[in-house]
Amino acid sequence: MTALDSLSLTPHAFENLGIDSQTSLADTALRLAQKSGASYADIRIGRNQDESAYAREDKLQYFNSTFSAGFGVRVLLDGSWGFAGSRIVSETEVARATAEAVENAKAARLLQTRPIELEDIPAYRDRWIMPVAQDPFTVPVEEKAAKLLGINAAALKAGADFCNSQLWIVREEKLFASSRGSSIHQSRVRIWPMFTVTAIDKQTGKFATRASLLPARQAGWEYAAAYDGEAEAALAAEQAREKLAAKSVEPGVYDVVIDPANLYLTIHESVGHSTELDRALGWEADFAGTSFVLPEMLDGLQFGSPLMTVTADRSQEGGLATIGWDDDGVRGTEAEFPIVENGIFRNYQMALGQAQLIGRHRSNGCAYANSPTAFPIQRMPNISLQPGADGTTLADLIAGVDRGVFISGSGSWSIDQQRDNFQFGGQVFWEIRNGKLGPMLRDVAYQARTVPFWNSLDGIGGRDTYELHGAFTCGKAQPIQIAPVGHGAVPARFRGISILNTERKDI
Ligand SMILES: [Zn+2]
User: Which among 3, 151, 366, 376 could bridge 327 via Cys, Cβ 3.0 to 4.6 Å?
Assistant: First the structure.
């Protein structure tokens, strides 16, 4: 029993486990791992704070606050990974888990088909604390509840029959230390205020919904405070009423113009997940499968039209995947790379030890573990569709369409087991006639295959139309790990896309 044992278990105790004590625990793990023959070892010690609130109409239905602390030790022994973690942050437990990680590596070695080779990564002794103007965890519950109830009241006043609103806040703090000499302390916060309004036609029993379009962000409370949720809720209530009375779309082939609040999700599912190297290699098949994008397609596949450039980064301000270093210790500012460049597929997302499998020299900052006790796996950085250079506006894109549909906001979606054939709904849709927006439509979804879809891209907004969106809860792996991912996008126009009617049963 050491003095550190008494600091385990409770959030309060972890608060007292200062950076020096964490560094001392990390030293213990790395020393023991190397003594056991590991050629590489790292440890993450950290804690996650999570707060969520849900209000329906005039009632706050729940307010939930959780805290989890822990650590995870990873070792490479004779080319095989071993891992173990614990929720008890103490010297004894770190020693026990390190021994267990070594035993796990020895067990994995028996099944090894090819030894894992790690590339060199520079060592860093640094810290990255995301700046926030107002720490959202210090804002009183009453203020958060008032924000949500104000949104609901505005929606009801504007004609909604129901409105529910939610607020989700997460803070991650971690120390990463590796046997290569890194010791990196980081902290970041993300926040997502959101709502859904419902309008009902009491004669027919039909209903229509409209969800908020405000993106989730890495930001402090200032982001929620500046958000005029009441104005958006009033607009959403009016649009839900309008949607209720709107014409159901006639299925067929149309030109479509898609706004960033919808397109970010299509980028996420069809470009983000399809270019994850673990899916391409068949190592990962959970959450919609492997990938049609095979390693031999690198630098050859015409993924999209020449207007399509999709880049990955860890540094966009506010991006949900922005961080100083990833969970392999790769520096964020050195982890920017093109995935698709002027239409050509250029790079996979990779975690430590994966680059050599496809003849590349180093990974590119795509490792993340959603808790200190989870193994870091390859996850998306911020992945964004780059703007056109010509200052094209949304109106310009619409002006180029004789018969089409404009799609805004993300809705339901599905994609096949190779990230190829997909369909996406949305929140609100308008007919485009002779270059102008016409009446609202309902029951719209667009269906396509990934490569033909992106090759049909023939118009793209300029820098002024760029918006940063993102997925707050991207799921991957077994057991499931949740990751936040940022996606920037501009409005874009696609030619000859199949539009489905989501209500019709006869097609
Ligand atoms: Zn995802």
Answer: 376
Q: Give the integer Cα–Cα distance in Å for 219 and 237.
A: 27
Q: How far apart are the CA of 29 and the centre of ligand 1, in A?
A: 33
The residue to which tokens 């030109």 are assigned? 255
Q: Looking at beta carbons, which pairs linking 153-156 to residues 24 or more positions away fall under 8 Å? A: 153/58, 153/230, 154/229, 154/230, 154/231, 154/233, 154/234, 154/237, 155/195, 155/197, 155/233, 155/234, 155/236, 155/237, 156/57, 156/237
Q: Calculate mean pLDDT across residues 63-76.
A: 96
pLDDT tens digits, 117-139: 999 999 999 999 999 999 999 99
CB 167 within 8 A of CB 140: no
**Six-digit token pair at 376?**
């870091």
Cis? peptide before 479, omega within 30° of 0: yes
Predicted TM-score (pTM) of this structure = 0.95
Q: Report how far ligand 1's centroid is from the alpha carbon of 265 (Å).
A: 9
Q: With beta carbons less than 8 A apart as the criterion, state whether 111 and 170 touch.
A: no
Extract the tokens encoding 157.
């006043």
Taking all residues of the chain, what is their mean pLDDT, rounded to a whole number?
Answer: 94
- pLDDT confidence of residue 461: 98
Domain borders along the chain are: 3-245, 248-501
501 CB neighbour count, 10 Å cutoff: 18
Distances from the Cα of 230 to the Cα of 104, 207, 225, 361, angstroms: 53, 21, 12, 51
Rounded to an integer, what distance in angstroms lies between the CA atom of residue 278 and that of residue 295?
A: 11
- What does the pLDDT look like over 305-319, one tens digit per residue? 999 999 999 999 999
CA distance 410 to 428: 9
Fold category of 3-245 in CATH: PmbA/TldD fold (3.30.2290)
Q: How far is CA 455 from CA 448, 451, 466, 494, in A?
A: 11, 6, 20, 8
Instruction: Return contacts of 222-227, CB within 8 angstroms, 24+ apart.
Output: 222/132, 222/133, 222/134, 223/191, 224/136, 224/147, 224/167, 224/191, 224/193, 225/134, 225/147, 227/193
Q: For residue 480, give both structure tokens.
A: 């499931």
- Those residues with Cβ within 8 angstroms of residue 179's Cβ, 6 or more apart along the chain or in another chain: 30, 33, 34, 38, 40, 41, 42
Q: What is the 3-state secondary structure (H, E, C) of 337-386?
A: EEEEECCEECCCECCCCCHHHHCCCCCCCCEECCCCCCCCEECCCEEEEC
Q: Distance from the CA of 503 to the center of ligand 1, in angstroms?
A: 26
Q: Measure 272 CA to ligand 1 centroid, in angstroms.
A: 8
